[in-house]
Amino acid sequence: MHFPIFTTTLTPLLLLSATTTALNFNLRQTFIPLPACLNVRTVLEATDTSAVVTSLFTEICSASNSQPLPVDLISYNAQIRPFLESVVTTETANMGAPQLAPSYLVLIDALFDLARTRCGLDAFESDVCAADQAALAPVGDCIRRNGWQVAIRNALRILPLFSLDACNRQVEFFGRDEVVDVLVPQYARQFAAERQAAR
Fold first, then answer.
1. Which of these, 175, 174, 115, 124, lies nearest to 144 by C-alpha position?
2. Residue (of 59, 39, 43) closest to 51 by Cα position
3. Among 45, 73, 191, which residue's Cα sits nearest to residue 129?
C-alpha cells in the first residue's frame, strides 16, 4: 500500500529536520569567530575581576554602611535579572547597538549558570553579602576564565554578538577603563538603592 501524501510531504520535512539538526550540531562543534571577535575575548579576559568584585561587594553589600542588604541568588529571576535587563538595554543603546540586548541577556543567564554550577557561587546562594569578600574573588576569576567558552557554546543563540560590527563595538566599549571604574560601581549603587527602597 502506498501513501503518496506521506512520501511527498512528510518525507521532505523529515529530511529537512535531520539536515537542520546535523547542521546545528556541526556549527556548535566548529564555530570559529571572526578575528575582531577574538579581540573581544582578549579585552574581556584582561578585565580586573578583583576590582569588579570589590565594587559590587562594597556598593551593594555595604550599602550606606548601616543597613545590611542581603542578596540571595534564589531570587535571581525576580530581583537581579530585571535590573540587569535595564542595564543591558541602556548600555547597548549607548553602544549604538540596541538590537544586541536580547543576545546579551541570553549570555548573562548562561554566565550566571556557570557561576553557580562551576565557579562556586552556589555556596553563597542564600546571601552573597554574608560571604567574605576574598572568598568571592575566585568566583569572578572563574567567570573571566571560562566566559568565552560559554559564549562559544551558546553561539547559535547569540549570533548577533559575533557580527563584525558588533565585535568592533564591543572591543571599543569594554576596552574603556570607565566600564570597571565608573559603570560597575554606578550600577551597583543603583541596584542597592532600589533594593533598599523596596524593603
1. 115
2. 59
3. 73
Which structural domain, as residue segments, surrounds residue 99? 35-198
Phi, psi of 71 (to 5 degrees): -125, 105
- For residue 111, tell me if it sits in a domain: yes
C-alpha cell at 62: 555595604
CA 56 → CA 103, 106, 179, 181, distances in Å? 23, 21, 13, 11
Q: Is residue 9 part of a domain?
A: no
How far apart are alpha carbons 63 and 181 in whole angstroms?
18
pLDDT in tens, the chain (199 residues): 544 544 444 444 444 444 444 444 444 445 678 888 999 999 999 998 888 888 888 888 876 545 666 788 888 888 899 999 999 999 999 999 999 999 999 999 999 999 999 998 888 877 888 878 788 889 999 999 999 999 999 999 999 999 999 999 999 999 999 999 999 999 999 998 888 887 7
Work out whether the CA dihedral 108, 110, 111, 113 comes out positive or negative. positive
* Residue reference for cell 550599602: 63
Number of domains the chain is built from? 1
CB-based contact 129:60 (threshold 8 Å): yes
Please indicate, yes or no, if residue 178 is contained in any of the structural domains.
yes
Q: 2 in a domain, yes or no?
A: no
